[in-house]
Design brief:
Helices cover 42% and strands 23% of the residues. The protein is globular, with a radius of gyration of 16 Å. The longest helix is centred in the first third of the chain and has 15 residues. Helix 1 crosses helix 2. The chain has 214 residues and is an alpha/beta fold. The chain binds ligand 77G and magnesium ion. The site of magnesium ion has 5 residues, from loops.
C-alpha cells in the first residue's frame, strides 16, 4: 500500500531533523511542505503569529483542536514553561501516530497529550476525565464549521476564564464566518485580526485572536 503524504512528512522529519531539537523539526516540515508536497500545517508565516500569541498567553494549560501532523503542537509546546501542558484533539486515527512520532522527535512528548476523537465529544470530558480546570490558551485549527459550536461548548463547560485566549487559523481561507460572527460584536470577547497568507502559498489568509472577558 502506498505511503500517505503524512507518512512521507514523518519520514522526512525522522531522516533530516535533529532529535530533541523542536526548531529543526519545524524547519524540516516547512521545507518539505514548501518544496515537495503542500500540507495544511499552520506553517512558518502564520506560525510566527502563533508564537507571538502563545508567548503573550504564557499558558499553563493549552488546548489545540486539530493536531494533524503535530506541527502546531510542536510550535506551541516548545514555548511552554516547565509546569505547562498542551492537550491536542485529533479525530483522524491515521494522523495520531504520525503526530505522536513527530512530537517525540522534537523531544516534547512530556508536554503534549493527544486525545483521539471529535472535539465536541472530548471537550465535555476535559474537566472530569483530564483534570482540567480552565484553559489559558486554545488554538482552533480543525473543521472550520466546528470553530463556533466548539467555542460555545468551551463556554458552556466552564473551560474559559477571564483572559483565556482563543486563536483561530484560516479565518481568511477556508474561512470560519460563523466563528467570526460569534466572537466579534460579542461583549464577552475582545477580538484582534491578523492578516497573513495561506501556509506555503501567496494566497491571503488570516488568524483571529479572541480574548474571553468572562
Ligand atoms: N477533534 C476534531 N474534531 C473535529 N474535526 C477534527 C478534529 N480533528 C481533526 N478534525 C478534522 C480537521 C480536518 C482538517 C482541518 N483543517 C483544514 O481543513 C485546513 C484546510 C486548509 C486548506 C487550505 C486551502 C485549500 F485549498 C485546502 C485546504 C488549510 C488549513 O490551514 C486547514 O487547517
Ligand atoms: Mg489551518
Amino acid at each position: 500500500m502506498d505511503q500517505s503524504k503524512e507518512q512521507r512528512i514523518l519520514n522526512s522529519v525522522s531522516y533530516n531533523a535533529i532529535k530533541g531539537d523542536a526548531e529543526s523539526v519545524l524547519d524540516c516540515i516547512d521545507k518539505y511542505c514548501s518544496q515537495k508536497e503542500w500540507a495544511m500545517n499552520v506553517g512558518d508565516e502564520k506560525g510566527l503569529i502563533l508564537d507571538k500569541i502563545v508567548k503573550e498567553a504564557d499558558p499553563t494549560v493549552a488546548l489545540e483542536l486539530g493536531t494533524y501532523c503535530g506541527y502546531s503542537a510542536v510550535r506551541i509546546a516548545r514555548l511552554l514553561k516547565p509546569s505547562a501542558h498542551l492537550f491536542s484533539i485529533e479525530f483522524n486515527a491515521e494522523f495520531v501516530p504520525i503526530a505522536k512520532e513527530i512530537i517525540e522527535i522534537a523531544g516534547l512528548e512530556d508536554k503534549v497529550t493527544i486525545l483521539e476523537g471529535h472535539a465536541q465529544d472530548i471537550i465535555p470530558q476535559l474537566k472530569t476525565k483530564y483534570n482540567v480546570d480552565t484553559l489559558d490558551f486554545v488554538f482552533l485549527d480543525h473543521w472550520k464549521d466546528r470553530y463556533a459550536p466548539d467555542t460555545i461548548l468551551l463556554e458552556q463547560y466552564g473551560l474559559l476564564r477571564k483572559g483565556s485566549i482563543l486563536l483561530a487559523d484560516n479565518i481568511g481561507f477556508p474561512g470560519a464566518p460563523d466563528f467570526l460572527k460569534h466572537v466579534r460584536n460579542n461583549e464577552h470577547y475582545e477580538c484582534t485580526h491578523y492578516p497573513s497568507h495561506l501556509e506555503y502559498m501567496k494566497a491571503p489568509d488570516a488568524m483571529e485572536k479572541a480574548v474571553y472577558l468572562g
